[in-house]
Amino acid sequence: MAASSNRKSLPGFYKQLNESPVWFFEPVKVRKKTKRSSGPYYAVERLISKRIFKGNTEYLVKWEAYSLYYFSWEDEGNLTRDLIRSYDKPVIEKSRLQANIDTLSCTILS
């Protein structure tokens, strides 16, 4: 019995769950599977980050129609070249870039 009372007093996972924002617990939508030559694939919303793990390049993937809880690290070979290219060399519209530069300049000069 001492172990169970000890667990309740420790801060950690359960305290974090109580303090988590509502979006963390949003219901999960079912992913549509589409057959390709290499097997089923799932829609990717965007790539978040890149790392090298045990000599392999991996990307942190945000899956479309899934909450942040379902991010996963995927091997570079599991992703399309276009998706990786869009992460490595993003295409930013000049008008959007100029608007951000103007906003930053105004903020700095104010």
TrEMBL record:
SMART domains: CHROMO. Residues 42-79 form the Chromo domain. It comes from the Eukaryota. Gene3D superfamilies: 2.40.50.40. InterPro entries: Chromo-like_dom_sf (IPR016197), Chromo/chromo_shadow_dom (IPR000953), Chromo_domain (IPR023780). This is Chromo domain-containing protein cec-4-like. The gene is LOC116302709.
